[in-house]
Amino acid sequence: MKSLSWAVLGMISACYSAFSQEKIDIYTEHFPPYQFLTERGEVAGGATTMVRLLMAQAQIDYQIHVLPWFRAVQQTHESNTALLYSLARSSEREQHYQWIMPLCELKVGFYQRAGSVTPKPHYSLNNLKHYIVGVGAGQPSEEYLKNEGFKKSNLVSLSSLNQAGGLLEKGRIDFLFGAQSFVEQMAHVMGTEQSWELVLEVPKLSAQLYLAANKNAPKKYVKKLIEAAQTVQGAHLNSITTCSNSQYIQ
Q: Which SUPFAM superfamilies does the UniProt record give (predicted)?
């Protein structure tokens, strides 16, 4: 019986040793400025930097795959050791993942260019329904506005920064609804930095973006990642804060 116990322990040890030497798959989507492919085909971005720092701290070899979001989620669910980022943490998702490390804060709301619309003393979802609002095509933010009673005639679907900038210049839209980075990037393209303000935040869509693990990931593996994450967060707190100043449409 004793020899059998040692044999089992030996098998577990061998399995964990083999696991620790394999290259871990990390999945994400194209979501600038958090993560995106450079012209050289490398994955860059603020969130990516934090993930790379964590993996280096944990001394785990890995490879990052940039896929459409649905496929990235699916691939993560199919492998116990796979990781996924940047995933908005929510009550609905809480039990489906093991949350390793926060990366950035996603602040979503209505943005107005200074002087473009006569300011109101108080903005609300109801009075904003009377304006033309630009929102990312096919994004959760667009679905949210429709569910809140915004009419199709008051929504303009945006597919790119250039389109958003062009419509604003022509006076076709009054507000942008989305995450802060989309507004910042568009302002950079238009040369209108520091000219935008958040007039109404929507906490329901605002969230913290995380690196997460499969809910069935091995306990020792998750513990190792979390310990590494604590070290990285302590040493690079400013990097996490900086991410919150450069959000993208969601």
A: Periplasmic binding protein-like II
Contact yes or no for 82/214 (Cβ under 8 A) = yes
Can you tell me the mean pLDDT for 33-48?
Answer: 90
Token look-up 């994400």 returns 28
d(CA 201, CA 208): 14
What does the mean pLDDT of the chain come to?
82
pLDDT at 90: 82
Phi, psi of 156 (to 5 degrees): -120, 115
pTM of this prediction?
Answer: 0.66
Sign of CA dihedral 64, 68, 73, 77: negative
Q: How far apart are CA 78 and CA 127, in angstroms?
A: 45
pLDDT, position 247: 33
pLDDT (average), residues 32-45: 88
Q: Which two structure tokens, joined as six digits, stand for 124?
A: 């609300």
% of the chain surpassing 90 pLDDT: 45
Which residues lie below 8 Å from residue 21, measured CB to CB, with a gap of 6+? Answer: 61
169 token code pair:
């210049």
**What domains can be seen in the chain, in order of their start residue?**
22-106+208-243 (3.40.190.10), 108-201 (3.40.190.10)
Among candidate residues 147, 107, 115, 150, the one with its CA nearest the CA of residue 131: 150
